[in-house]
Target: DUF2391 family protein
Amino acid sequence: MSEDDTDLETEGDPERADMGDLFDELEELEGLVMSDAARKQVRETMRVAMEASSGASPFGRVIRGYDRGDLAEALLGSLLFGIPMAVEGGTQEVGTFLAPRPLYLLGTAVFAVSLVIGILYVADIQDVRIHRPIFGLIPRRLVGVLGVSFLTAVLLLTLWGRVDWEAPRLALANAVVAFVPMSIGAALGDLLPGS
Model:
């Protein structure tokens, strides 16, 4: 047995290794290999590992990338949490309270964004990887979940006559109030199927 083999056996607990660990190792390997052919092989191995992990339980998968299927899941989650907000009068009461208080309104929006970040990247419901971020900084999944939920809140409240855009501050406040649970639903809808 070589010294390298001994290092591999003693490094980490093999019973606790999971698909996330495999992806970490493959990403590290991708950065180390010199030839394009070797990098292509590592990427292909990552793709195969991703497909293998998708056959497992819906939890504990490695989630990478963001596509229209993820957007549809976020929309569904947003609607499941948002329709009750659109038909319930409490949304308008809270919106009326927040409209003349811009700091409270901003705080509510920041709270919703923080919750989504926590659900997607901190709560460890799934192993979510940031893949090709916008401007190299902003995760596509975060933008998708927040964008779908806010747009759904605005459209749903507008189309169902729950807001009047002649009073834009009040309409925006109502949309932000509905956005809070809709963004939570969108994040959970995106993650729970494990896509």
